[in-house]
Design a protein that fits this description.
It is built from twelve helices and twelve strands. Helix 5 links the parallel strand 2 and strand 3. The radius of gyration is 21 Å and the shape is globular. With about 375 residues, it is an alpha/beta fold. The structure holds pyridoxal-5'-phosphate.
């Protein structure tokens, strides 16, 4: 049996009419940049999260960087980031001229909150918790930690659309949140897309200005900004997909439960754990195995696609290795060597899950 890692075509086939109509209407109206479709999606996404402001932009890396810049973060400043994430998290810090200060991770690969306090210096301007794989970082605890200080909390929600922590949706608890709508994300466009979410109006206004050449109204360039806009086609596709996000998320959760059911008490691998505070939305279904490489090879021969998110500890990558050493990031090092992402998407069938689980059991037999 062939099992792909994700199947974006299956999703398209399930809502083909809505997507095709959305695309044609943008072309008919020549609303390519900005325009009605973009503000419509911003309003819809704000309603879905129950947040005051959504500012769309070109991708989920820009959204992180734009927020940091709007807070005036730059050279000489420090931003605390987890040692396990996609590089965008630290890259956005570097793009402002500030320095990424990495933290060890817990058994879920999330920023180890017990280690954050010791990283705070008088240069610390922000902390970026990443809701890795769709699991939730305890952001309320972080908000408590920074209470009474000027330090900001920026939630990286690129993998956590509709994940819940302490009864609240991710992105709505920190000072601001950043979303990616990269095609493979839980809510994906058909190209690059992203957005900033916040309840703080002033921040939203500044972010919007930065993302559109520093303009406040046409030709009034208040500051030097940049070009990071969401285009009409992507906005219309996102609007067509948004009504299905809840259903797709439940299906991911159901599939995770099916994996757990069929693994039963099999204890040669470690299954993903849900943090106490939240609801996991399984952007990725990541298991841990001390024989990761051999297991991945075996599954490939069985026709099962897997991936590793991420094979190299962030602090030890070339841009950061000059000031980080492996001894300081043993938890990240160990985690990165053991993780394996199994196929996970709404349309995955129980039959496929049974086959994947049986193949893993066969590898260990
Ligand atoms: C995907 C991702 C991003 C960046 O998103 P892009 O839209 O690809 O720029 C940022 N952070 C994390 C954790 C991601 O997974």
């Amino acid at each position: 049996m062939k099992v792909p890692f994700v199947d974006l075509k299956a999703q398209y086939d399930s809502i083909k009419t809505q997507i095709d109509e959305a695309i044609y209407s943008v072309i008919e109206n020549t609303a390519f940049i900005g325009g009605e479709m973009v503000s419509k999606f911003e309003k819809e996404f704000a309603a879905a999260l129950g947040i005051k402001h959504v500012v769309s932009c070109a991708n989920g890396t820009d959204s992180l960087e734009i927020i940091l810049k709007a807070w005036g973060i730059g050279p000489g400043d420090e931003v605390i980031v987890p040692g396990m994430s996609w590089i965008s998290t630290s890259e956005s810090v570097g793009s402002t001229g500030a320095k990424s200060v990495f933290v060890e991770v817990d058994e879920n690969g999330l920023m180890d909150l017990s280690k954050v306090k010791s990283k705070i210096t008088d240069k610390t301007r922000a902390i970026i918790p990443v809701h890795l794989y769709g699991n939730s970082v305890d952001v309320p605890a972080l908000m408590k930690l920074v209470e009474g200080t000027p330090i900001k909390v920026l939630e990286d929600c690129a993998q956590s659309h509709l994940s819940i922590l302490n009864g609240k949706l991710s992105g709505t608890v920190g000072h601001a949140g950043s979303f990616s709508f990269y095609p493979g994300k839980n809510l994906g466009a058909y190209g690059d897309a992203g957005c900033i979410v916040t309840n703080h109006e002033e921040l939203a206004v500044t972010c919007k200005m930065i993302a559109n050449h520093g303009q406040q109204g046409k030709h009034n360039h208040v500051i030097e900004g940049r070009n990071s806009r969401l285009d009409g086609l992507q906005a219309s596709i996102l609007s067509a997909k948004l009504p299905y996000l809840k259903e797709w998320t439940s299906k991911r959760i159901q599939n995770a439960l099916l994996y757990k059911k069929h693994f039963g008490d099999f204890d040669r691998i470690t299954l993903p754990m849900i943090t106490d505070s939240g609801q996991h939305v399984y952007h990725l279904f990541v298991i841990r195995s001390s024989q990761r490489e051999d297991l991945a090879k075996f599954l490939k021969l069985k026709g099962i696609e897997t991936a590793v998110h991420y094979p190299n500890p962030l602090p030890l990558l070339n841009p950061y290795r000059s000031y980080n050493s492996v001894e300081d990031f043993m938890s990240v090092e160990k985690f990165s060597k053991e993780i394996l992402s199994l196929p996970m998407f709404a349309e995955l069938t129980e039959e496929q899950i049974i086959y994947i689980v049986a193949s893993i059991k066969e590898f260990y037999a």
